[in-house]
TrEMBL record, chain A:
Protein's recorded name: Anti-sigma factor
Species of origin: Halioxenophilus aromaticivorans
Superkingdom per UniProt: Bacteria
Automatic annotation (TrEMBL), chain B:
Protein name (record): RNA polymerase sigma-70 region 2 domain-containing protein
Family: Belongs to the sigma-70 factor family. ECF subfamily.
BP GO terms, sorted: DNA-templated transcription initiation
RNA polymerase sigma-70 region domain ranges (all copies): 37-103
GO molecular function: DNA binding; sigma factor activity
Keyword ATP-binding in annotation: no
Species the sequence originates in: Halioxenophilus aromaticivorans
Keywords: DNA-binding, Sigma factor, Transcription, Transcription regulation
Length: 246, 198
């Protein structure tokens, strides 16, 4: 009852600011305003953490990352994905002539295509929210030492039974609105084994990638963070089993 | 120290007008300098953390206050009513100067082998708590569609109009989902007392 009677007001500009939808002038004015406005600042910090939490829990949204793993059972090549998208969109457009809402058809089509795919993945990964392996996901931050003097690659140690790994990639801070980045991971043969687009850096200028360890086996890899054609950061890392690394 | 009481009456430092604060700093009141820093520091940290990595933000933060106090003491701030904008501008300049200064060496504090890579234990704990709370919140959402709204709006940064159109939603429904998420987040912080939300 108490909660219902207490109607909290949220400033809509906070979302615009944190989602990078403000012009530079608006952003400047907004930052100056919250410098001496504790209530507004509290809202900024709260929504900032909400967004951070949502990004950390991206797996919970059952988002399909673009996986390009040779020999993997659940490999989805880009061409196949594009073909599927194209087919779905054509089918939806055709069906949309007779039926509305189109969202329902989109859901049916998505179910038909995604459920078999998900069932294959779930054989190994299990439900994202309840699997203890996911809750204990190991986070490894790359890129902070890439330019260090010794130039040595980072080594990520994983447990053989570990199925998930979150890899953070440090990016360069920029002024203004952060651009979405693409992370591409190549194996020793320079074949793309993992790629994900549209990644936004968090407030520490780090982008996070959730990786299924079955798609990236122990070995050496190199990665690139790109913004369009520009390489923002690159480096290499090695993946080893913690009990079999020597 | 005594100037504080004489010039501001019984006002708390955070209740002083910008003019009063600036005048006291100009007259050599160290307490007023502290008040200025205390008053603007949280906002400045948030702003800097959005523009730099934590280590760089900390360096720029310190340097911003050194420059700001020096300039206010010297009377370089000609419009005291624009004190927040003045501090903000100094901070922006300091960020640019930091990168200019370090562009040739390309060395940041993160490169220091003595500094442990990754977040501090406190940051890691906080991150974990936020992650757990938001996961719980996602699980409690009414429908998968509500989850999709949050993901597309906050993670993928799509526009509200586009999301509403794609999901055949009313603006009110969209607002309700966002409002609920914020309210749950707010209650978490009120309970946790980690952010000073009212």
């Amino acid at each position: 009852m108490n909660n219902q009677s207490e109607q909290v007001q949220f400033d809509e500009r906070v979302d615009l600011y944190l989602r990078g939808k403000m012009s530079e002038e608006e952003e400047l004015a907004f930052e100056i305003e919250y410098l001496d406005n504790p209530d507004l600042l509290a809202q900024v910090e709260m929504v900032e953490r909400l967004i951070h939490g949502l990004k950390l829990n991206e797996d919970s949204f059952s988002q399909a990352a673009q996986v390009a793993e040779p020999k993997a059972r659940y490999q989805v090549s880009q061409q196949a994905a594009e073909a599927s998208d194209s087919f779905i969109s054509k089918a939806s457009a055709w069906l949309g002539k007779w039926f509305t809402p189109q969202t329902a058809w989109g859901a049916v089509a998505a179910t038909l295509f995604l459920v078999p795919l998900m069932s294959v993945i779930n054989q190994s990964a299990g439900p994202a929210l309840t699997n203890p392996a996911v809750q204990g996901t190991y986070v490894h931050l790359l890129g902070q030492r890439v330019r260090s003097a010794n130039g040595a690659a980072d080594t990520i140690f994983i447990e053989p039974k570990q199925q998930n790994l979150v890899v953070g990639f440090a990016t360069e801070p920029t002024f203004g609105v952060p651009e979405p980045l693409t992370v591409t991971v190549y194996n020793a043969d320079d074949v793309v084994v993992w790629q994900q687009q549209g990644l936004q850096p968090d407030y520490r200028w780090t982008v996070y990638l959730s990786v299924n360890t079955q798609a990236i086996a122990p070995g050496t890899y190199r990665y690139e963070l790109t913004n369009g054609d520009t390489i923002v950061n690159s480096g290499s890392f090695a993946m080893q089993y913690s009990d079999g690394g020597h | 120290m005594s100037a504080s009481g004489e010039t501001s009456g019984h006002k708390e430092p955070n209740q002083l007008s910008y003019e009063e604060l600036v005048n006291q700093i100009r007259s050599g009141n160290a307490q007023a300098e502290l008040s200025m820093v205390t008053r603007f520091a949280p906002g400045l940290k948030t702003m800097l953390n959005r523009k730099c990595s934590p280590d760089i933000a900390e360096d720029v933060f310190q340097e911003t206050w050194r420059v700001a106090i020096e300039k206010v003491r010297k009377g370089d701030l000609r419009q005291p009513d624009r004190l927040p904008a003045f501090i903000h501008q100094i901070a922006r300049n300091q960020v640019v100067m930091y990168y200019r200064k370090n562009s040739d060496t390309q060395e940041t504090p993160d490169d220091n082998d003595l500094v442990a890579p990754g977040p501090s234990p406190e940051q890691a704990l906080e991150t974990r708590r936020i992650q757990d709370h938001v996961r719980g919140m996602i699980e409690q959402l009414d429908t998968p569609r509500d989850r999709e709204i949050l993901k597309r709006y906050y993670v993928l940064e799509e526009d509200k109009e586009q999301i509403c159109e794609d999901l055949n939603l009313s603006s009110q429904h969209f607002n309700r989902v966002i409002y609920r998420a914020k309210t749950r987040m707010r209650s978490f912080f009120v309970k946790d007392n980690t952010v000073n939300v009212k």
